[in-house]
């Protein structure tokens, strides 16, 4: 009797990447490197964090000598936050980044991103999540509206539907009634794709709201 073998599965992880304030001008070439390395940029935004927000983001580093300098540096200008996805995203992104100290990275990993773009231990150009659990926390911090696996159920699912899906669907159906297209199903599908609240947000200007 022939054994039934399960179909192969590809498990996709997500990780958070930050292009830090002093290398935001290198955004395009860093993104090109990311895409050529097999990552999908699922979500993206440009924003500026306040010192208080930086303190919350790096809460696990609180009390360390470099903490005040870290929060001052990370709040010194705009940064780019991205959700990257691929197989083993967390470990692969960490490998591409290289050691956290850019001076050491230039000695031991000269082709790593921190060796190329970083300056020293503090100004090391880029951030990457250390683990799957920290990636989930950091992604939620930078992208509060994003859905992470496992897909929520129960009250969390109802809250998400009420907050995002139902208003979008209602707006789409209202627009459909006004437009009265010849092919309503295709028109509505295209409208929902265009107005999807979770599509990547490409923001090239820092708004006053984000600066707060």
Automatic annotation (TrEMBL):
Subcellular compartments: Cytoplasm, Cytoskeleton, Flagellum axoneme
GO biological process: cilium movement; CTP biosynthetic process; GTP biosynthetic process; negative regulation of oxidative stress-induced intrinsic apoptotic signaling pathway; spermatid development; UTP biosynthetic process
Superkingdom as given in the UniProt entry: Eukaryota
PANTHER family: NUCLEOSIDE DIPHOSPHATE KINASE, NUCLEOSIDE DIPHOSPHATE KINASE HOMOLOG 5
Main subcellular location: cytoplasm
Source lineage: Eukaryota, Metazoa, Chordata, Craniata, Vertebrata
Complexes and interactors: Component of the axonemal radial spoke complex 1 (RS1), at least composed of spoke head proteins RSPH1, RSPH3, RSPH9 and the cilia-specific component RSPH4A or sperm-specific component RSPH6A, spoke stalk proteins RSPH14, DNAJB13, DYDC1, ROPN1L and NME5, and the anchor protein IQUB. Interacts with IQUB.
Gene3D superfamilies: cAMP-dependent protein kinase regulatory subunit, dimerization-anchoring domain, Nucleoside diphosphate kinase-like domain
SUPFAM superfamilies in the record: Nucleoside diphosphate kinase, NDK
An annotated Gene Ontology molecular function: hydrolase activity
Domain Nucleoside diphosphate kinase-like: residue ranges: 12-150
GO cellular component, one term: cilium
Keyword Secreted among record annotations: no
Family per record: Belongs to the NDK family.
CDD domains (UniProt xref): DD_NDKH5-like, NDPk5
Full protein name: Nucleoside diphosphate kinase homolog 5
Keywords: Cell projection, Cilium, Cytoplasm, Cytoskeleton, Developmental protein, Differentiation, Flagellum, Hydrolase, Kinase, Spermatogenesis, Transferase
Gene expressing this chain: Nme5
């Amino acid at each position: 009797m022939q054994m039934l073998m399960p179909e192969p599965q590809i498990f996709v992880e997500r990780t958070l990447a930050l292009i830090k304030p002093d290398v935001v001008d290198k955004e395009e070439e860093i993104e090109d490197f990311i895409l050529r390395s097999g990552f999908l940029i699922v979500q993206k935004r440009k924003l500026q964090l306040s010192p208080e927000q930086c303190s919350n983001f790096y809460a696990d580093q609180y009390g360390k000598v470099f903490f005040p300098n870290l929060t001052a540096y990370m709040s010194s200008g705009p940064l780019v936050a991205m959700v990257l996805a691929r197989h083993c995203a967390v470990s692969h992104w960490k490998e591409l980044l290289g050691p956290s100290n850019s001076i050491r990275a230039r000695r031991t990993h000269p082709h790593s991103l921190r060796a190329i773009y970083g300056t020293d231990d503090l100004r090391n150009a880029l951030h990457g999540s250390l683990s799957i659990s920290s990636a989930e926390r950091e992604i939620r911090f930078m992208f509060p509206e994003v859905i992470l696996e496992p897909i929520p159920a129960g009250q969390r699912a109802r809250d998400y539907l009420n907050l995002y899906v139902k208003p979008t669907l209602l707006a789409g159906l209202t627009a459909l009634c006004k437009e009265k297209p010849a092919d309503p199903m295709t028109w509505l599908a295209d409208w929902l794709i265009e107005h999807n609240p979770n599509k990547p947000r490409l923001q090239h200007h820092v708004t006053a709201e984000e600066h707060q």
